[in-house]
Structure formats: C-alpha cells, structure tokens
Amino acid sequence: MRTVILGGGFAGLSAFKTHDSILIDDKDYFVLTHRLVDVVKTGNPEIAKIPYKNVLRATVKNIDFKNKKVITSGGELNYDKLIISLGYTQKIFPNTDKIENVEDALYLREKIMNARKIAIIGGGPLGVELASVSIQLGKKKDKVYLIEGQDRLLSFMNYKASNYALNKLQELGVDVMLKTKVDSISQGVIETSEGKIDADIIISSIGFKGSPLISELGLSNINSRMLVDEYLQSVDYEDVYGAGDSATTKSFIPMSAQVAVQAGRRAMLNAIGIEDKFRFKQYAIIVRIGEDYFGDLLGTFVQGKIAKLAEEYGIHRAVRLLNQ
User: Fold this and answer.
1) Could you tell me the sign of the dihedral formed by the alpha carbons of 73, 237, 91, 8, in that order?
2) Quick check: 294 and 169 in contact, CB under 8 A?
3) What ranges do the domains of the chain cover?
4) Which candidate, 243, 279, 248, 274, places its Cα nearest to that of 14?
5) Strand partners, 297
6) I want to staple 30 with a disulfide (CB 3.0 to 4.6 A). Which of 11, 25, 50, 56 is the partner?
7) How many CB atoms neighbour CB 91 within 10 A?
8) What residues contact 96, with CB distance under 8 A and at least 6 apart?
C-alpha cells in the first residue's frame, strides 16, 4: 500500500516517521516556525531551517481524488491513502505585511530596521513577540504600536500570562492599545476605533487559517482547514486523512506544533489500519519577550527556566524527528 503525505511541517513529518511513506514538500528544508521571529531579530535564516532527508521536492498542483492521483510540478503520483498536512497561512488585513516563512521574516527585518513607526495588529503570541523585537531593532523608533481588539493580550492564555506580557511590553516602550478595533487600512494609515495611526510598516498577526489549496480542491472546510471526523478521515473521501493546521473537526483542533505532531502520527496509524479516535493534549504555550520566557504549562502560568525548557522541548522534538 502506498501512502502519500502532502506537506512536511510538524504533522507531515510526524506521519512520515511513523510509517514508510512518500512525503512531498515544496522546500528542501523543514521550517522551525518557533524561530521565524528570531530570523527577524538576527537576520540569520539558518536558525529556522533544518534540511530534509528523503523528501520529494515538488509543488502540489491538484489532486484527482477519483483516480487517486496527486498532480505535482514534478509529475503525477498514485496513492492508496493520502494524508494532507499542508500547514497554515496567515489571516491578513489588506495593505499589511505578514510572516509565514523565512523569506517573509528577512523581508520584515529590512523594513523594520528602517522604520520609525511600526504597527502590529493582533495581540497573540506572534504579535507580542514581534512587538518586542521591533522596538529594539535598527534605528531608534518613534513608536511601536500593538493593537488588540480584546481587553487583554494573549486572550486564550492564562490571565497571568496576559498581564505579564502587557507589563513587559510597556516597560520596553511599546504602545499597547487594547479594546481597539481596526476599521480600515490604506497607504500607511490605520483607521481605528481610537483614531488614526500613521505607520511606516503595518504587520498583521490576527490569526491563522489553513492552506488555500484546501478550498481550491473543493474539500469541505472550516477556515480553509479540511474537515475531518474524529479519526482524522476526510468527510469527503474515505481514503484521505488530514492532520495539523490544515485540518480540523467540527469541534475544533488547536493550531499548534505539539498538537500537529500528535495528529500526524494518529492520521498515519489510522490510514494503515491501526484505528483509534484522535485525542490531543496541549501541553504548553510559551511566549518570549527579549530573553524572558513565560506562558502556560498544563494550564499553569510559568516563567523563566521552566518556560524556556518547555519551549525548547518542542524544537528538540522536531530535530529528533528529522534525524530519526
């Protein structure tokens, strides 16, 4: 039986290492998404890249589900079982920049280094980390704004984490604007519920969605995430499975590296007939401001060495997967 995996992120790589299969990715390296903000900070793309081993490099163009064929830039590939793990894309406002990959990170670094006024929309982990890096990078900044529509940063995390982030960013000089709605953006001007903001660079960090290819393929989806059942099986095709950020059940699966690793393994086991329902555990959500690590570990606020160890565990797990 031939099992083909589309996408070599945390989920795809986990599936690939679980059972003999073919993994297709459009890059020849694995991206440590944890490290993209570090690329912005340092300008070194290699800290977020690990070379792949035994991965077929090609771009997925289409899938013939009826005849079980993946059409790629390198030709067609037949499959018996297919695992779709194409990762995430960012939700963005028009006329803003994003950070989805290494190239985006390097581009943002150059813009941030030469900007005097920077606005970041969205106070989740990415927005918080970008704000802390932006205010310290390059020339002296007149203003770094972090705009959040809700009444606290890191709204899905522990309140202690939210307050910790707010205090740390304010100490650095970031202008944190809570309960502020963005109405429109054009030519470096943000119209908000609190008035106009001028900025040399405007960055979206308002959340994530699945791969646009999911919708283009006609698959049932929520937020461009392929809709799967509790066994991670596509609701449209019985020989197709989904894992990671590009797949979700109706009851929702979190978009995180640690959950993606669990989903990739379970999707592969189910695809080869070792069936069980997918049950995930979100162990930790860690954020960094400067050299301060903090966040949630099993629902409890942590900071310092414990938080740093929890963050590094996820990175080391990816490296181990690649080197197995």
Assistant:
1) negative
2) no
3) 3-90+208-281, 102-204
4) 243
5) 284, 300
6) 50
7) 15
8) 121, 185, 202, 203, 204
How many other CB atoms are there within 10 angstroms of residue 200's CB atom? 16
Write the CATH number of the domain with boundaries 102-204: 3.50.50.60
pLDDT band at 312 (very low <50, low <70, confident <90, very high): confident
State the chain's maximal CA–CA distance in angstroms. 60
The pLDDT of residue 299: 84
Q: What is the pLDDT of residues 262-297, one digit of tens each?
A: 999 999 999 999 999 999 988 889 999 998 999 998
CB atoms within 10 A of CB 173: 11
Q: How many CB atoms lie within 10 A of CB 194?
A: 13
| The domains spanning 3-90+208-281 and 102-204 adopt the same CATH topology | yes
d(CA 233, CA 287): 32
Is this prediction's pTM over 0.90? yes
User: What does CATH list as the number for 3-90+208-281?
Assistant: 3.50.50.60
The pLDDT mean for the chain works out to 94
